[in-house]
Amino acid sequence: MSSRRRSRRHELVESIAQGAALLTEDGEVVAVNATARRLLGMPEDARPRLAADTLINAELAHAVAEVWRTERPTTVEVLLGERHLRASLSLVRDELLLLLSDRTEERRIEELRRDFVANASHELKTPVTGIQSLADALGVVVHDQPERVPALVARLSNEAERLVALVHDLLDLRRLEEGTPPVGAEVDVAELVRQVAASLFGRAEAARVQLSVDAPDRLLVPGIASDLRLLVQNLVANAIRYNLPGGSVRLSLRELGPPVCAPLGGGLIELMVADTGIGISDSDLPRVFERFYRVDTARSRQTGGTGLGLSIVRHVAEQHGGSIDVDSELGGGTTFTVRLPSRHR
Ligand code: ADP
């Protein structure tokens, strides 16, 4: 091939945004752009013969051979090392054009979605099956053993509550995962923390857990009040749920001083929810923010947990430009620390 023709080919391939390579039928690489080199793991200066050196992947080599044989374009998805690549192959006159795109991230997201749907369906099945069998049981005992009716109704209502909580959490999580950042009014988090504590006071008392709040009169954060409420509610509900009789939950809210927040060009507020409860082991700690991850499924379910609370909390914190940390000791209690920017960014 003349050097002018080769250089025209090269320019053409270089101008393509996705990975691109032009090959001859005997496997010579006429041109290959930087993206394709990166995706195929080819060294910068290499001019390999494709079939032998580059297409280490048998499927891709096979697809190339098929396109030469049938002269029909094709698209295949191949795994090359850790990467999922989509390869589209077609003949352009007497050469084969290979277009490559990296589908690794898409595949990861698809997998997460599939897992989520599978987990959510499984979680929904439990209360739905419970409701169904309790309704059947009610139908049987209502005439013959009416004294059993109140207990069955109470269990029925319990299962229905679980179902409602789960559906609400799923909807919240889906909305938060869509990721529209909050355009916010100013929310008084100090007032919000007091309100959440007041609403959970009865639950704390029933669990014989002492709940206390240490917050300034007023602390403003730009954000969405209902989401920030979800954040505080979930953390405090957990601190009560995974506590022990005689234990305590302490909520403290403060504004961090300028030296800490100077690089962000604004203030930071810090909310700590510290409990003296059962704690979380080092091996479970990194996983508690995952959807549906529970250290003790029975305890979570029994106390009204859905396994989604901390995922919701993390999303709310991150959507508000903040972060969440957890510190825990098995048997020694847990502290969640949320930091949020206190001014518009
Ligand atoms: P759940 O609805 O099960 O509470 P979360 O997502 O809120 O789901 O929490 C995930 C898991 O993390 C819980 O099931 C529990 O095992 C653990 N966990 C959360 N908060 C605490 C806490 N304050 N103390 C001990 N364990 C906790």
Distance between the termini: 58 Å
The hetero compounds bound to this protein are: adenosine-5'-diphosphate
Runs with pLDDT <50, length 5+?
none
Biggest sheet: strand arrangement: 2-1-5-4-3
Order of helices and strands: HEEHHHEEEHHEHEEHEHEHHEE
- Number of H/I helices: 11
The CATH class of the largest domain, by name, is Alpha Beta
What sort of overall outline do the alpha carbons produce when their principal axes are compared?
elongated
Structural class: alpha+beta
What is CATH's topology name of the largest domain? Heat Shock Protein 90
Average residue pLDDT: 89
Strand and helix layout:
Elements: H1 3-14, E1 19-23, E2 29-32, H2 34-40, H3 50-54, H4 58-70, E3 74-80, E4 83-92, E5 95-102, H5 104-144, H6 149-178, E6 185-188, H7 189-206, E7 210-214, E8 220-223, H8 225-241, E9 248-256, H9 258-261, E10 268-275, H10 297-302, H11 309-319, E11 323-329, E12 333-341
Parallel strand pairs: 7-9
Antiparallel strand pairs: 1-2, 1-5, 3-4, 4-5, 6-8, 9-10, 10-12, 11-12
The structure holds adenosine-5'-diphosphate.
Tell me about this structure.
It contains 11 helices and 12 strands. It has 345 residues and is α+β, with helices and mostly antiparallel strands. The protein folds into 3 domains: 3-102, 2-Layer Sandwich (Beta-Lactamase); 104-178, Orthogonal Bundle (Helix Hairpins), CATH 1.10.287.130; 181-345, Heat Shock Protein 90, CATH 3.30.565.10. Helix 6 (149-178) runs parallel beside helix 11, helix 7 (189-206) packs parallel to helix 8 and helix 8 runs antiparallel to helix 11. The structure holds adenosine-5'-diphosphate (ADP). Adenosine-5'-diphosphate (ADP) binds next to helix 8 and helix 11.
